[in-house]
Records
---
Amino acid sequence: MRVPPGLRAADFAEAIKQFEAAVGKDWVFTSDEDVDLYRDAYSPLWHEAEEPIPSAAVAPDGVEQVQAVLQVANRYKIPLWTISTGRNLGYGGSAPLLSGSVVLDLKRMNRVLEVNDKNHYALVEPGVSYFDLYKYIHERGLKVWIDPPDPGWGSPVGNSLERGGGYTPMRDHYDNHCGMEVVLANGEIVRTGMGALPGAKTWQQYKYGFGPYIDGIFSQSNLGVVTKLGIWLLPEPEAYRTGTVMVSKHDDLLKLVEVFAYLMNSGIVQATTLVTSPLWFSRPNPELDALRFNGEVAGLEDYAKRHNIPYWSVNLPLYGPARVIEAQWEFAKDKFSAAIPGVTFADGPSYRFPLSSEQVANLSDTVPFGIPSLSIFSIMGPKGQGHLGFSPIIPMTGEAVLESQKVFTQVYRDLGSPTGSAASFPVFSFFARAFVNIYLFPVVHDVETNRKTREIYRRLIKESAARGWGEYRTHTTFMNDIAETYSFNNHALLRLHETMKDALDPNGILSPGKNGVWPKTMRKERA
Ligand SMILES: Cc1cc2nc3c(=O)[nH]c(=O)nc-3n(C[C@H](O)[C@H](O)[C@H](O)COP(=O)(O)OP(=O)(O)OC[C@H]3O[C@@H](n4cnc5c(N)ncnc54)[C@H](O)[C@@H]3O)c2cc1C
């Protein structure tokens, strides 16, 4: 049995007995076979000594058991690593950042506590997956949609706390949470927002309550264990339609994004989409690869013309009353036409809800319709291969998209990309007002490839930060690197995070190192 850092084996054995007393013997996992299941299948440190491996896992069934586990952890100063459903693949999976931590696995706390289809919200425990919540709603015929991320086996709690994204107008998952119950490191239970008011009638309808708004400190954090979360649901819309906007010249991107930002920020387009280029996404093609790699704009424009494909395109997803979304599409076309000579449009599919089961079966992707799925795994990469997400936030401007593409391609050129192709960074509108560039690096069970990937990744972090772009979320391997870049005023924000950590978790038991925040005893001295 592995032992957490700084602990004697005999003390850990005693602590394990106490965990067993707290949650039941069947729910404490210590065998290599069981603990291996908590390793990160997408670890960029696979087969290397630095791969963080937990020492054990403990799975409480309710808030009182969480409190009891924290009590034992405080007694023995055992680092825990909290997960809800533990599907954070690409960002660390269910594995801790600090090797030897005990995984606090909340999968048994999987109760849907309430779904309200009049005020459109749900209250869930951490172990509830998107599939569970969808099933609950579907079985009861409730007229509300959830907003799943691509893989539906994760949880609204874990995903919202990571500030993940989906595709419908409820796409920003942290933004669409409302009210939390949190167990602090000392075992105290806190309810945020209106939940602090005994008998509150609007815990899931009004976020702020009274006094300082505290919820943010529990996202991407190690300051508490969230045991309940309110999330806002989308009232089932009447209709959906899409339309694609296409332009033929490289520089058209500037106006394309300007109008796109106007439509987004006016609330006309409210869902996640992708500004992209078929020239980036076409299958391996030596002619295109060479043009892209060398940034040959004239050559790329010529290629697009010869093959009758747009240089850039954006697909606009619209949800709402049928008459309204038709008018929104017409309005969008007018705006683009006024700004970009030669812009063309293609009508996409449109639907009225509810969909018949036949319509659902024929959808190429159910996720934008609030139906969770795992189909993303069938289209992403060869089997047995994982990925790492590099995801800087950049301004919603064409200039920033072009500059980021140039900068990242240069990194590839300097260091050699693991896939051997030019950088292709699509930009997503997962969040209001800014783009997130998401690039997925393949992770394989090959030490040399992964070393190279880590080198490139770290260079990308530095090049991004040098231009004022920061990552919105990252794999545990790079949390320190990215926290380092958020350094305004000699790391004032990180120091504030550390002050809170010291006050709320003096023994440093909760997820040490999460997003670069370490307990006092494990902190590096800062110059
Ligand atoms: C192919 C593929 C596609 C993906 N697409 C998307 C996508 O579209 N959108 C997206 O957002 N992500 C995406 N992901 C990433 C990931 O799969 C999801 O974000 C997933 O929902 C996260 O896993 P989870 O919900 O089980 O969270 P968990 O793994 O349970 O939690 C994530 C982290 O949050 C913290 N945490 C969790 N629960 C608690 C708690 N109760 N209290 C305190 N802290 C807690 C912990 O630090 C934990 O490590 C994708 C991954 C893959 C492999």
Note: The chain has 16 helices and 21 strands.
---
Amino acid sequence: MPALFEIGAEGGAYTVDLTRDALTAALPAMRDGVVIADEHFARLLEARGQPAITLIADEAAKSLDAVGDVIVRMRQAGATRGTHLWAIGGGAIQDVAGFVASIFMRGIQWTYLPTTLLGMVDSCIGGKSSINVGAYKNIVGTFHTPRTILIDPSLTATLNTAQRVAGLAEAAKICFCRDDATFTRYLRHEPHPGLRPEAFEPIIALSLGAKKWFVEIDEFDRKERLLLNFGHTFGHALEGASGFRLSHGVAVGVGVLCALALSRVLGASPGGEAPRFEAHMRGLLAALPELPAILRDVDVPTTLDRLKADKKHEAANYRFVTVDAVGRVQLVRLPKDAATDAAVTAALYNVLESLSR
Ligand SMILES: NC(=O)c1ccc[n+]([C@@H]2O[C@H](COP(=O)([O-])OP(=O)(O)OC[C@H]3O[C@@H](n4cnc5c(N)ncnc54)[C@H](O)[C@@H]3O)[C@@H](O)[C@H]2O)c1
Ligand SMILES: [Zn+2]
């Protein structure tokens, strides 16, 4: 089976495979390694004779305490410097496993099998791991790419609508950030949460192909890759302000709408594919009947406070990704003053009101 991609990285190129039933095919290779999996997949593996270190995939699992616990359990399972780590789960498992792989005995090799659509279309490449400390989400982390990423699209069959929307929201964002032509190709696949697993395959390939461009040209997040933060400053703040009732991907879906609204408040009228992108994102979010009630409970001043505490800002300026008149994402710096607070607040009210009805 030829690799879907090879991704160039400073620590050596790594491969991405997209194969139906990849999880079953990988079972024999896991025998000699140590496996970290979420509850659902740990149970499935154990039924097939493969033990796993089990984590509940939530934000609490992404803490330094939980990381310490995983390291102890790895050692108890006999892990050494030469052990290969396998991670099976969504972005939360990836974050913990990637972080542990980067620090355990100063770094060991690992393989990642994403099990959520978000993991498959977005987080699995790029090599980042992020851990929460106190109230600060994703505040510590490392870059440590897996040797191989094995994508098994059949695993999407058991994802609920919110998990599917979360993945499509990130895929749409990546394709839109890449260029108009990529987003047009994305829309041709008629993405919606009810798709069968096979129909997600071309969307996964397109999204990862677009993200590959960003991570190869700017592996360490200094310039181009920062554009992929589109919707994330708002998204992270909304995720926290909702008490994590909004998942990361859904919060990013709402966040890109806020970033578009902010672009308009600042005087631009996003053009190009931006109107179709916005309509598509609103369509995805409309598939979530629980969303209006969650958003009605989100407090705007709390969200603004969280947004100001985001780690992506600079000492004197806030940094946002907005969309210009020809539909291109751009990194903008806004002074830390009352006018910026008012613009951001207006964007938040505008979007939250439109989605709360
Ligand atoms: N490291 C990165 O580059 C990166 C990028 C984006 C997001 N993230 C992080 O990823 C996290 C979100 O990840 P996520 O949305 O993939 O979900 P998740 O890992 O938080 O899992 C969400 C839920 O889905 C369940 N689940 C996983 N696979 C399933 C399957 N196939 N069928 C049924 N249920 C399944 C999990 O057990 C869990 O209950 C956030 O913490 C976010 O910060 C990291
Ligand atoms: Zn994201």
Note: Residues 197-217 form the longest helix (21 residues).
